[in-house]
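Support case: user asked for a sample of complex input and structure output to validate their parser. Sending the pair below.
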Amino acid sequence: MILAFAVVLLGVALVLMVRRPILRRLAVRDATRRPGETVLVIAGSLLGTAIITGSFIVGDTLDASITATATQQLGPVDEVVMFTSAEEASAAAEALRASDAVVDGAIAMSSARAALYTTGSEPKAEPGARLIEMDIEAATSFGGDPGQTGVDGSDPAGDEVFITQDVALALEVGVGDEITASLYGVEKRLRVERIFPRLGLAGFWTGFETISPNAFVAPGTIAAALEGQQDPSVRTPPSHLLLVSNEGDVEDGAVLTDRVTREIEEITGATNIDPVKKDRLDSAQTQGDQFSEFFLAIGAFAVIAGILLLVQIFVMLAEERKSQLGMLRAVGLKRSDLVRSFYMQGGIYGLPAGIFGTLLGIGVGWAIVKVAAPIFGGFGDFSLDLTFALETSSLIAGFSIGVVIALATVFLTSLRISRVNIIRAIRDLPEPTRIRPRKRSMIAGGVVAILGVMSLLSGLGNEQGWAGVIVGPGMIAYGLVPLFSRVVGTHRLLIGASIGSLAWGAFGNEITSGAFYDSGDIFAFVLVGLLLNVAAVILLTQLQDAIGAVVRRFGAKRLSLRLGLAYPLARRFRTGLTLAMFSLVIFTMVFISILSNVFSGQIDNTVKDEAGGYDILVDSLGTDPPSAAALEGVEGVDRAATLYFGTAQFTTPRSRDPKPWTTSGVDETFVEIGPPNLTDDDLAEGISNDEQAWARLLEDDEAAIVPPFFLNEGGGPSIEYVRTGEQITIIDPVTGKSAERTVIAMTDDDSAFSGVYMNSDSLRDVMGAQVPPSRFYVSVDGDADAESVVRSLQGEFVRNGVEAVTFRSRIEDFQQGSLQFFRLMQGYLALGLAVGIAGIGVVMVRAVRERRRQVGVLRSLGFRPLMIGTAFVIESTLTALTGVVIGVALAIVTARQLILNGEFGDGIEFIVPWSELLILAAISMVASLLATMWPARQASQIPPAVALRIAD
Amino acid sequence: MLAYERTDVSGSGVPDPILVAKGVRKTYRTGAESVEALKDLSISVQPGEFVGVMGPSGSGKTTLLNCLSGLDDIDSGEVWVQGELIHSMSDARRSTHRAKEMGFIFQSFNLIPVFSAAENVELPLLLAGVAPSEARKRAVATLDRVGLGHRISHRPNELSGGEQQRVTVARALAGEPSLVWADEPTGNLDSETAGSIVELLHELNRDGLTLVLVTHDRAIGETASRLVQMRDGEVEATSLKGAV
């Protein structure tokens, strides 16, 4: 669609060029007579295309990387059905194979979580491994493509084990080495016979982890271990699964999921069919799209800056050629011809900018992926291997959007600049100041104001109407300006409208109780940023006379300063465009910088919020968890609280498809020692503090406390799928049993992924043994070193698969990942800064050309070359500085409001990273100074006689 | 009332010339072609003189103005202004010298569009280091002198052509220069306005202002006290008023 639009727009330019040779000559010569400037214009314009293309490529990469995990961890498996016994699973597999369902594989498998470890001088452990029993021979041909199953050969013997590369890496073992498997309290020595890749059935894994620590054992191994267990109700039972492969290859098969699901239901009678492949591919697509959108939103500021640059360039072109335009009109060219000529020129800039922008976008995407890869790869078992990928469709879309934006901008600008009065243009006279607004301005203003009212009213109370709420009041305020300008005066009205819009941008979210950001759409931030910056720039341009008076008063003797200020103050529209270009980019960079510093400075708060009275998080095997009392026996441990922990399926009023999320059942001990902090604003009616909420949870079997980011996947801002007071449904993925729970509160943080809290009875009532008491929150003695206690716990409970970590180090790791991500965004935004710098360069080069004659006059009056050059440098530096000041100030105000309002959580301290902001401002200033040096030097070196003789 | 002193450095009773040019040559080169714009030109201007320079298009009038005022470099020869060899000065020194000693009036006014009339006029004063308040006072006085006392806050685009040229004249006079160069000052004006500008220049000359006026308008040229006729980069003839 967008490609067709771009082709049409370029086609129009081409047809015009063929059919209108005079206009073509005009456009081509204007575009090519100054190659240096043309290169600058194209460079400024192509960055927008590069940013758009780069964003799409980031999405492609994420999509492809997650899809790759589907190949690695699911292979031919499209659906998974859970049964309560191995016999049922086998019977279902057989029935399905015998049917004419559109499947090319159905196989049963049993599995149980186990700890695998080596003994000896340097023991290694893989506490979260899974023992699998499966007919290996049958599995080899599962799905019709043996190359995608990852397994071959026949079943292991009783003392043999086939392990995946992930296990081999963790235990540092190879074929022939001995390892120990521990499950249900039984230890079994096994010899490694084969090592499988993380692929297909060998890599089969449906958890959140991206590694597959699987170990294939002889049939009967799990059952033998199970026989000795003491209390089956607190041990995760083995899983008995039916794995189904749809016809088609690894990815294509997923399109048959709906049909196969129905067929499985009909043939086996099972209802809890998990479409794992489809879900994974959908998730890949969703997360890819979310990341694309996220980078696109962050990059939107740079794209807007690019648009402003293009408008600026064409406005300057028109001013420079004003008399030429007048002459052309005088000799018979129509206004529409001028538009056509400018449009052709836009095409001449737009096409190469689109092509080179797309190519640069590949580089941008590649660079982002390179920087992001270690971030995504830094989450241990949950790491994602980012592999650069790009789709042709992304390149086409990036190119097309870039071209459409460029040509549409040029076209709209041309409509405005082609409106010249022939005589005034020929004689280079200024446009008269209009005292009374035109009737059409008044009508347009009225329409804008009415639309503003409608947007605001329809947006309030409608989560998806955030755009109307954000811009509605601004539309009303600015729309009313032409209507009342005769009574109050345009100048005053614009100042009022701008101050009002600024106040709305800064405080509107608070006034509307979160209507700006409740939807979680990141483009809301883009729109707020745009509103604030536009209002600030309009306000400043309206105050320029006052600013000029101050400068004249204090800088009267500094001629370069007066001269440097005179032009920006006199040309409000052009100065406003340059200011907006700069301030928008600086605004985003500073905002991200503040957020990154705020979050990295919150470790103590976050630890306090999340850990409550605890120090260490302990996870163990569901098939063989230790007891809290045993943990308390370890030196340094003060107390340990047990959590019944597992993964359930959930639905909410805004997320109807069941999605997996972790859940924890807690008891009095957990609450007594010190549970996590809850969000103050999200307590249910009748509950006024954390203590009451936790007490309610313990006594009310219908209550649940949900975490932030509940059911969210991928990056980007959080979507609120459920609110306090609403009901969620919890579903046991094995039995399909479900129950309703009411959300009574929300936790502040959940980097431990303890998920949805319920009281242990309430949770076990639904999930049974699927939530074993395998997670512990541990507090240490006052004088104990938590890190040493972690090492002791892991050493003493290896066979229970204990993995312990201090809350502090876990949160620090998470914060580190976030910080790196913020840095990545800042680097990405630097592209926008490049647009701003290129913009200043273009503006100054054009300014020098435009003012050659005036430079000559000044030189004839006795201005030394240095003074001329200094005036140009002052002009650009002050413009850039003002842009920086606006951007910084608005970012600080916006970030402060959002943080203090609790948009990012309670109790977050607002910190302004002044040193970082100073560096950022200094880089921007130095870069803009460098961009001005060349044109300023050019200006200072114009011989006065030449400048006076040559008008152009 | 403005007053201009006549210098008599030599003490001979005859004032020393303000400007002396000897053997000045200037050639413009465009690619392989070169045009000799000034050919061994020599001329001197006495204090208080009103020298008119006339000639057909391309005769070198404007080149003469540019080279003799130091706005442009010369290929050979010497130009002395107030006893100083201007082309041997550095560019910065020449700029300062120009600010102190010369004023310029151009055909297309060449006012700074973003400055008001007063701001345009006070520029050379500020350049010369005059205090801002004093500069403004003198700028206003000069504008008043040229009949624009009521237009001091207007920007160039708010003034008529004649008014703009008067601001240019005021700007040229404000620094009380030794010599004022006028390049076709009436070229962009209607005849009535042109007449009033010429009359203003004569009035200033009568007050002692030394003026070199380049024009192609014989009627204006002939009002000068000395008329230099140029052709093909050379002085074709020089005549005193009444002898033309």
